[in-house]
Design goal:
Blueprint lengths: L3 E4 L5 H12 L3 E6 L6 H7 L3 E5 L5 H14 L5 E4 L5 E2 L7 H28 L3 E6 L12 H21 L4 E8 L12 E2 L10 H12 L8 H11 L8 E4 L1 H20 L1 H6 L5
Parallel strand pairs: 1-2, 1-4, 2-3, 4-6, 5-8, 6-7, 7-9
Helix pairs in contact: 1-7, 3-4, 4-5
InterPro entries: NAD(P)-bd_dom_sf, SDR_fam, SDR_oxidoreductase
GO molecular function: oxidoreductase activity
Family: Belongs to the short-chain dehydrogenases/reductases (SDR) family.
Length: 278
């Protein structure tokens, strides 16, 4: 059955892949981009089934305005995909203050504002689905990705608290946690701090060498398959809280959760011992 999707960051990466695939399958898409002509080719092919809004998610007032307009101009929006974001690479002291602020404003605060703007509309229409593009790095992290990981851990925490708040209104949420995929994630859309030689013989340098030598093998995820899996998840009921996509994502998250649970179990006695005495 045809549905209407709202997607931020639709000019490239998963946003572009989702938009194109949904239109090809007969759905309607309200897509936001930062540059007005970014989806000109799709608009020429699909006409009125593609609604385009210009949006920078770091502008909270603009987020509310564009989402309000989309819900007003379209009969119903079934699924909101919060996808806008980019990667920032660099050890903690290699990235600049302005880079950190922009990363948080886009990936974390921008995603929170998209959800906050959409929830009242979804509530008034008695339900809908929010799909938040997170990352496997939202459960673990690699050297040079600490700030990026912070934004993904942050948005996961936001939704852990928000999901039970909005469930009574029929609004469900899925956090998508892809691994490294063959989009422009590490290319034109990414940012990087300065490289300090002092980190060359540390895990930072080791990670950089692995990335440089592995080539495409470092990016096993197929964007088309990932987009297809995201679309299919919208028909699952109840909605999966998390969707881990990619063999590398599975391995990273599995190792991180296994280690975390083992550490927690080892502290069980200590945890209970610090309660107030009966």
């Amino acid at each position: 059955m045809s549905k209407t999707w709202f997607i931020t960051g639709a000019s490239s990466g998963f946003g572009r892949e989702l938009t194109a695939l949904l239109l090809e399958r007969g759905h309607r898409v309200a897509a936001t981009v930062r540059k007005p002509d970014a989806l000109r080719d799709l608009a020429a092919t699909y006409g009125e089934r593609l609604w385009v809004g210009v949006l920078d998610v770091t502008d909270g007032a603009a987020v509310r305005s564009v989402i309000d307009r989309a819900f007003a101009e379209l009969p119903r929006i079934d699924i909101v995909v919060s996808n806008a974001g980019y990667a920032l690479f660099g050890a903690a002291e290699e990235v600049a203050d302005a880079q950190i602020e922009r990363q948080i404003a886009t990936n974390l605060t921008g995603s929170i504002q998209v959800a906050r703007a959409a929830i009242p509309h979804l509530r008034r229409q008695n339900g809908g689905r929010i799909i938040q593009i997170s990352s496997s790095v939202g459960q673990a992290a690699y050297p040079t990705m600490g700030v990026y990981a912070a934004t993904k851990w942050g948005i996961e925490g936001f939704f852990e608290g928000t999901i039970p708040e909005i469930a009574p209104f029929g609004i469900e949420v899925t956090l998508v946690e892809p691994g490294a995929s063959r989009t422009n994630f590490a290319g034109s859309s990414a940012d990087a701090g300065q490289i300090l030689d002092v980190y060359d013989q540390t895990p930072v340098g080791d990670f950089r060498r692995i990335v440089a030598s592995a080539g495409l093998a470092m990016f096993p995820g197929d964007p088309h398959k990932i987009a297809s899996a995201i679309i299919a998840s919208a028909d699952q009921s109840p909605a999966p809280k998390r969707l881990t996509l990619g063999s590398d994502a599975y391995a990273l998250v599995h190792a991180a959760l296994t280690e975390r649970l083992a550490t927690l179990e080892a502290q069980k006695e200590l945890a209970h011992a610090t309660d107030v005495d009966a």
